[in-house]
Amino acid sequence: MLIFGLPIALWTLLCLMPAGPANAETLQVAVIELEGFCMRDLHGKWVGLMPDLVRELGKELHFQPNFTLVADGRYGAYDEKNDTWSGLIGEVYHNRADFAAALLTITALREKHVDFSYEFMDTGLTVVVRRPRWKNQVSRSITFFLGVFDAGVWCASFVIFALTGFFLFLNDRYNPREFRARQAEHSARDTSVSHALLAQMNDFSLFGSLYYTISTGCFQGYRRSPKSLVGRCLSAFWWLFVCAFAASYTAAFLCALVASRGGLERQFGIEDIPELNPVGTDAFKGATPVWFPNSNTHRFFKNSQDPVMQMFYRQYMAGLNKNSKLANVNTVEALLELVKTDDRYFAVMESTMADFYSRYSGCEVIAAATLISDNSYAFAFPLGSKKLRDVNKVLLTLRESGFINKMYRKYFLMDHGPCWQSVPPAETVAMSLAGEEMARMFRSSLPLTLHSFSGPVLFYFASLLLSAAAALADVYIFTRYERYKQGNQPLQNTAEQPERAEQLPEPEASFGALRFSDDQQQLSP
């Protein structure tokens, strides 16, 4: 009896045990292949967010999922004439699948034909655009550096340069203090009076004065410098003007470089569009939105009363009339390929897909703006399905426990995307917008006009008055000194002094005369 009773007891125990995967019910689960959400690995196994979530439901509800790929690759489009559905909704509606596990948004039209589970993930509509690329539209001419200042500034600067050289020439010829100081300097180096006077004239001839004005800013500039008070005042005020000119030119030249910088081929907004009025969406007016035709997104834009959404719908219909190929964009790959190849188009898709493809598309697309954020994803079941209640309980448990968020981070937020280490797209667009705004501001301030540069010009002409006062001081000091000298020393025989007009030879009217003072020591007395 013991031998026959043991097998019976074991059989009874096995019958009382809960059903395992081997004898679990098999459910047909309709899916759509979408990278990150539902895809096959190298061994043909279904992996992704949806398969993991469905398998977890199977563990709790004791069923074995059999994933079947929808034939047309669509989520669901309603045919009003035939009262039929295509895509995932059609598989459930026609009872070819026990339920559909995909990124299905809940809408009133779909709820009339299928039952939805509790939401397992929140989503919204996001604008996806091609990452802005730099277009170098700069074509600087050979006279680009002259465009920093307008003609008035250049003319005023040249006039000031010429006046400085001319006044230094007059100072050397007619200021007795300058003449006497330079004569003493040359006489100390040359015993010949005629050679000393000739070198003195050539030091600050008209050309020599202009050369001194140009070269004194160099480390190896003109060797001579004015000795009188008025000459030194002219030199000091001239170089104060030069410093202001150089600083203004440097700043304006940098502004010109920034103002002529290359720009982004298209700059889309990065703010939430519902908070903007239609006027605030100018960046989207020149482009055509694209989404899946006859989809839930299409019906949303068609029925929306929001002015911005109506603008998008009109742009889409206008683009559809111009390009009939938009009606054949039925997959995410085709949608993104259109956006990548032409910046005149931007895609409108769910935010979860936008997050994924903005990270894993080779940094070619970015999520630029959020349209709405009040949609949710759920599983679709046939009307009156008995499994819906149990699935809802498990979905709530998985969502509250954080299992769904964990799976989402596993496939979408892990630190292995090619764009992970790059600057976030929103910050990239924001920085480029700031740079373009700065360039626009600089363009409005260029070229620098004479009115803007009037400060240094007026300062220089005011300094001429001070130089005139210094000239009077030079004459007064020289006169008082000569009177004092004549009052304390006996008069010399002026007949022995050669007349200045007779002794001074005619200077050579060329820049070659500038080298005369350097070679004067080679002349024989």
TrEMBL record:
Signal sequence, start to end: 1-24
Domain Ionotropic glutamate receptor C-terminal: 26-414
Transmembrane regions: 144-170, 233-259, 457-478
Subcellular compartments: Membrane
MF annotations from Gene Ontology: ligand-gated monoatomic ion channel activity
Keywords of the record: Coiled coil, Glycoprotein, Ion channel, Ion transport, Ligand-gated ion channel, Membrane, Receptor, Signal, Transmembrane, Transmembrane helix, Transport
Region (Disordered): 489-525
InterPro entries the record matches: Glu/Gly-bd, Ionotropic_Glu_rcpt, Iontro_rcpt_C
Annotated protein name in UniProt: Lig_chan-Glu_bd domain-containing protein
Organism: Macrostomum lignano
